[in-house]
Structure formats: C-alpha cells, structure tokens
Amino acid sequence: MTFGQALLEALESLSGNKLRSGLTVLGIVIGVAAVIAMLAVGNGAQASITGSISSIGTNLLFVFRGSADGPQGPGGGNRSGNNDRPLTLADAEAIDDPFAAPSVESVAPVIQGNGVLAFGGENSTTTISGVTPDYSMVRNLEMSEGEFINQEHILGRMSVVVLGPEAADTIFGRHDGVVGETIRIEGQPFRVIGVLVARGGGAFGSEDGEAYIPFTTAQARLIKRGSPDQIDILFVQATSAESVPQASDEIANILRQRHRTPIGDDDFTVFTQQDFLQTFEAITGVLTIFLGGIAGISLLVGGIGIMNIMLVSVTERTREIGLRKALGARKKDILLQFLTESSLLSLIGGIIGILFGWLIAFVVGKVATATGNNFVPIVGTDAIVLSTSFSAIIGLFFGIYPASRAASLEPVEALRYE
Amino acid sequence: MDWVIEARDLVKTYKMGEVLVEALRGVSFNIRRGEVVSIMGPSGSGKSTMMNTLGCLDRPTAGEYILDGESVASLNDDQLASVRNRKIGFVFQSFNLLSRQTAITNVELPLRYSGMNDGRRARAMEALQAVGLGDRMTHRPYELSGGQQQRVAVARAIVNNPAIIMADEPTGNLDSKVGKEIMNLLLNLNKELGTTLIIVTHDPTIAEQTQRVIRLRDGLLESSGEQLEGMKQ
Questions:
Q1: Distance, CA of A101 to CA of A234 (rounded, Å)
Q2: CA-based radius of gyration for chain A
C-alpha cells in the first residue's frame, strides 16, 4: 500500500465522521492559533519597544539619582533616596568638562514636574520640562515651526515655551500657526516660541504631549526642589555610539568623586540605551516564552484529544482491522493507515490554526492601532514552522500508541469482535 | 497427487483465563486441488479453529500444514499476511465489507495490499462481472441487498486468483433462496476457475452440495469423507 493510497483512505475515513473529526481538529486549531497569536504579540511587543528605544538615538546616556542596585530600583531618579545626594547643575557642568570626560559631547540637565497648560477655555495637565538649549541637540529634536529655547531665554529666565505637537493639539486644536500665542502654565503667562515635530512613542512613553521651558525659568518659578540647583535627570550625548561605554565610565568616575561615594555604593545610575534595549528584550523575551508555553499546553491538550479519538476509532474498527489483516494487510499497513489519519487530523488542525492565529494577531494589531498604540504583531516564519512541526509531531506521537494497538491486533480476535 | 492442503497432526491449544483449551488434538487430512470440501461439526468441535488455521489467520501449536506447496506452520505474522493475500480468498457469514467504500473499492482491497498498482481497477471489474454485479460497481454496501453484498465479498475473494476460497457459513445471513444462489455462484466459480472451495458450515443441505465432508468432533477428525468421494464421483 503506497502513501498516496493511505492518505486517500485516511481522508475518506475522516470525512466519514465529520463531526468527530471536526471537534478533534478543533483542539489542535485552538492550540496552534494560540501559539501563533501569542508569539506574534510577543514579537510585536519586542519589535515595538526596541524600535522606539532605538529611535531615541544610539549615543544617548541617562543619569538618574539613586542606585540601580539599591532598594529604589532603576529609574529612581525622581524619587528622593534617603542618603543619596541629588544630581546638581554643578554635576552637569563637571561632566561637560572636555578634559575630565573626553567622550562626552554635550550634556542636558532637566528638571521635570507636572503642570496645567491653559489657552482660552482649554486646559490639560502634562509634563513640564525645564531644559537647556543643548537639550534639543542631545535629544535630536526637530522643530515643525518656530525655534527652540536659546541661551538668551535661559539667562533672562524668560517666560517662553516650546510645545510638543500633541500638547499644541490639545489646547489649540491645531499644531501649526501657534507661535506667538500666549498660554498659561500653572496660571502664569508663557509665550509659545516653537512646536516640535511628532516622534511617537519613546522609552518613557510618548513625549509629544510635553511642554519645554527654559531651565532657569522652571527652577525659579514652576518646579521647586529641595536645593536650588537640583536636577531630576541628566541627558548626556556621547561623541559616538562606540564611545558610549567609555562615556558611561567617565561620568561614573566624575560623580563618584563629587559625591564621595566608594565604588559599588553609587548614589546615581548611568543608564545607556543599550541597557534599556537589553532590559526590555529580556522582559519581552520572558513574556514571549511564557505566553508561548501556555499556548503550547493547549496544543498538548489537543494532542491528547487526538489520541483519545484514535483509540476510540481503533476499538470501533476492530472488525475492519481484522478484515484488512485477513485480506493480507501487514502490521505496517495498519500502522501507516492509523498514523496517517492522526497526522492528517493534526496537520489540518495546524493549517487552520495558522490562519486563525494570523487572524487573531491581525485583529490585535488593529485594536492596538485603533487605541493609539504603535504596535504591530509579527507572525514570524519561525512561529509557523515551530507550531506546524510541533502539531505534526503531536499527531504522530499521540497516534503511535493507538496505531500500534491496531497493528498488533490478532486477526482471529479482531474478526470475532462484536 | 496434487494436494493443495496437507495437514499433519495439527494441534491447537490456547488458554482461556486459567483453563487450557485443546481445540485441535492432532488432525490430519489432505485436500486435492480444485476440490469442493465442507467442514462440519457441532459447536466446540474445533471447526472455527480449523478454519482459522487453514485460513492462515492463526498458527497451529504443533503439526505441519503445507498450503499450495508452502509450509506455513512456522511463518511470522507478516509472512502469514502475505500468504493470506496471495493464496486465500475469504467469504464471511456477515460479508465484512467496508461500509464507506464502493463495491469496486472493496473488491480492490486485497490488490492494494499485494502492492499491485496498475490494472487494479480492471481486475476488480472483472471479478465483479464474474459474480454478476458488473452494473453495481459504484454502489456502497448499504445500497445493496444481502445477496448482492455477499456477491461483492465473493468477488473480493477471487480477485487475487487464490489457491483456495475459505467460506465461513457463507449463506448463514441470507434467506434460503438467495443462499442457494450464492452456493451456485461458488460452485460455478469452482468449476470455471478451478479454485479449491472449503466451506465451513453446520447446514447439512450445504454440505450435501460439496464433494466431500470433513467432520470434526472434540478436536479430532471424525471422518475425512474420503469414502464419500468415491460414492459421488
């Protein structure tokens, strides 16, 4: 008996009991669809996060207050530690020294707080960042109109503001032709001098909705801190992507000296973009494996369903098996027949499951886009190959026991079976 | 003599739970090529065991069995399957057709297992025509009467040109008129093709139509019917 004939017979036999075959296939469909969809969502999340981190710029470093290894955890810069010295403008200036830190291109100290923007009847609460002119260069900001904060604004502690496009949309209903308007921030009048180009999501979420004012203005009037020249976060640009690790070391040395902390007991954290990437890749990697694992369990359950049905089928068809043996079927003929049936079940389930999983991933992507998240699930060939081969193996594995039971039936016994 | 079956001291014992059953206790007989033989005996006489052994569905515990010149008593399962496929055609009381398959596919089944690929359909058609069902080839078993189903089974039995046809109560599930038709069909095929016909039955009217009757009782040969042969011919 050739494989083609076995396939044909298996198809006939499966279509002879459509409801049962359908329900058995459903188990595999759900399993494979779950694996495909979960891996797609996991991969999509990873790609979306790494993409937005990369868009920040590859030679960027962040310096926070507080130790990454300490009880506050990473990113604890905005919270005040017990004995951690805050970062100050003097720290920023020291890092900006080209002799002490040759790998550092420029430094942008930032002080951040929340405030209410108001224009006409519209108002909204957003993040207000006090920044220096270097901030624009360090963060690669582009202006859609107007200009960024310059040294004059800093020295004069002027009441000017640069808006993110979303922030402009929120209070003006548009983001062009707003330069020259005067808005109120926490009740104080500020003149709009520029609007930024939209950038989408970033490592800290979207920054398109923020407002930027001169550092000195923020310090003096809007964002009060314990000590007058305290800063919240320091953005540092390295001279090149290759010099990022070196810059990180230089910054750490300067801050250790200035804060008089021993090595290993830092009260600050230098975070590079590479660190972000690695951290998020580790997180999404674990997430993907976790989701895929759970989906894999449902595939296993589907496989057990196949085995169950094949065992029932072997029992039901004992007489048929006996007859086939009487007519000259060898062990391997019967084995092939039942293995073909079980593999076919799981293969059909696998194919439908791939399509179904693809559909789920597609819908998830649509929903994410509709709700404003820049997130596209990725159905990788690896996921397809993985789940197809896994389901075929499951069909074979869970088919082997029933098939070998069928093949080893004694013809005399099988023919006598009622 | 041209023997198609030579059985020497066939013994078959098997365990049913703890009890050892001696189904055959040393049976010897020969069957000539082309002969029509019936095997009779009350239930428990070893009739079924004899048919399973002669049909190569089972191996004897002891003794020698030569089928069509081939010693088959000690073959393994797959070799036995091959012998069944090439040398034996089975006709069962309950037809045993594959219910989802058409008549012609049912008849083709032994050819599939013999590895024949070309001309399978043509051979199956010939066999169906030989049993008078040339016009029912694409019907499925449930679309056929009992007699027609048994004819399909007979076609399946002769499709491989076997040395012997083993018929186990071939008319048991049919009314007497249709039963007679099936018997005539089998006897005609024996005449035309020269195929040895062995019928296991408990029906004396069937046995009367055969050339010789082998009677079993308690696992032993009661009579091999050799004397009957002389009377009939």
A1: 15
A2: 32
- In order along chain B (233 residues), what is the average pLDDT of each group of 10 residues? 89 89 91 93 88 92 92 90 94 91 92 88 93 92 94 95 93 92 94 93 90 92 69 43
Q: Is some CB atom of chain A closer than 8 A to the CB atom of B113?
A: yes
Task: Give the pair of three-digit tokens for residue B21.
Answer: 């059953």
pTM across the whole model = 0.72
SS3 A297: helix
A-B contacts (CB, under 8 Å):
60
Q: Residue A415, Cβ neighbours under 10 Å: how many?
A: 24
Distances (CA, A) of A269 to A174, A205, A252: 39, 20, 8
* Residue from B24, B47, B52, B149 to probe the interface with A (highest A Cβ count within 10 Å): B52
Give the E-state strand segments of A51-101 in sequence order. 60-65, 87-88
pLDDT tens track for A94-139:
888 888 888 888 899 999 888 888 888 888 888 899 999 988 888 8
The answer to whether the Cβ–Cβ distance between B98 and A329 falls below 8 Å is no
Domain residue ranges of chain A, discontinuous segments joined by +: 3-53+278-416, 85-266
Residues 70-89 in B contacting A (C-alpha not used; CB under 8 Å): 77-78, 81-82, 84-86
Give all domains of chain B, ordered by start, each with its CATH number: 3-232 (3.40.50.300)
What pLDDT is recorded for position A38? 86
Which of B52, B82, B96 shows the shortest C-beta gap to A328? B82
What is the pLDDT at residue A352?
Answer: 93
ipTM above 0.90, yes or no: yes
User: Would you call A327 and B84 a contact, using CB atoms and an 8 Å cutoff?
Assistant: yes
